[in-house]
Design brief:
Number of domains: 1
Strand content: over 45%
Number of helices: 2
Radius of gyration: 16 Å
CATH architecture: 2-Layer Sandwich
Strand order of the largest sheet: 1-2-8-7
Largest sheet: 4 strands, mixed
Helix content: 10-25%
Length: 126
């Protein structure tokens, strides 16, 4: 799973194996270690939970979790939908959220395209 933060937006890119774990276990997470101190980490996670809200975020010190409704997560996993998108009011601003399937790069090599979804823009070679 890849995390991108830019301005007031948060995007997760999810591989096929991440999506499989999300559906089977309910949570996928990664931990970034910044220094050797035990608390110098950031955990970012994706969870599914029974909820009416399609997408939300939960913040705790050292952890950011994007939460998808179980229904949305399963429909996304089973379908052709690229991602789940939303925004949340945060004070007088908005936090844009995106959770997307991680597609193979068209100009990437086999190593960089490992565990990615087939890119829909790929032209089949005859």
């Amino acid at each position: 799973m890849k995390l991108r933060i830019k301005g007031n937006s948060l995007r997760l890119r999810v591989s096929p194996s991440d999506l499989e774990r999300l559906i089977s276990a309910g949570r996928v997470e990664e931990i970034i270690r910044f220094t050797q101190e035990p608390d110098a980490t950031l955990t970012y996670a994706l969870e599914q939970t029974p909820s009416r809200q399609e997408i939300s975020v939960r913040y705790r010190p050292q952890e950011i979790t994007v939460v998808l409704s179980t229904e949305s997560a399963r429909n996304w996993a089973d379908g052709e939908q690229v991602g789940i998108y939303g925004s949340l009011a945060v004070g007088s601003d908005q936090l844009a959220l995106a959770v997307e399937k991680d597609f193979a790069c068209l100009d990437g090599n086999d190593a960089s395209n490992e565990d990615t979804f087939a890119n829909p823009k790929t032209v089949p070679i005859c």
